[in-house]
Write a structure and sequence with these properties.
single chain, HIT family, subunit A, 5-stranded antiparallel sheet, globular, binds guanosine-5'-monophosphate, catalytic activity, HIT-like, Histidine triad (HIT) family protein, Histidine_triad_HIT
Length: 114
């Protein structure tokens, strides 16, 4: 089995970070380095999938569960509109290879991805 990822260690309480919400198979935290007024991470409790491509192929229901949790949190924290980002691969900026969705919201209406 691979080493626990930073997100597994957060979920297990080994690294401090508030779990702001959870469903049966996923949980959410605030990103430690926010890139938007609201910047959350929605993460499967399993680290079996390294990126969204593997997740979509292996457990599409879990991907749908993550999208649902992102939507719920966006309605609570940003009024409902949000950007969902899955960095996929190191050259795209992925640094943690335990799939996670960035949920970005609040004042993004100019539409820049920068
Ligand atoms: P990636 O670059 O893999 O798409 O996203 C990883 C994200 O995890 C980054 O935005 C980074 O700021 C966040 N992150 C890394 N370590 C921690 C941590 O210990 N706590 C929290 N809350 N976020 C983290």
């Amino acid at each position: 089995m691979s080493e626990p990822s930073v997100f597994t260690r957060i979920y297990n309480g080994e690294i401090p970070s508030e779990i702001i919400a959870e469903t049966e198979n996923a949980f959410a935290i605030r990103d430690i380095a926010p890139k938007a007024p609201v910047h959350l991470l929605v993460i499967p409790k399993t680290q079996d999938y390294r990126d969204v491509v593997e997740l979509a192929a292996g457990d599409p229901a879990l991907l749908a569960e993550m999208v649902g949790l992102a939507n719920t949190l966006a309605h609570e924290q940003t009024g409902g509109d949000f950007r969902l980002v899955f960095n996929t691969g190191a050259d795209a900026g992925q640094t943690v290879f335990h799939v996670h969705a960035h949920v970005l919201g609040g004042g993004l209406s100019e539409g820049s991805l920068g």
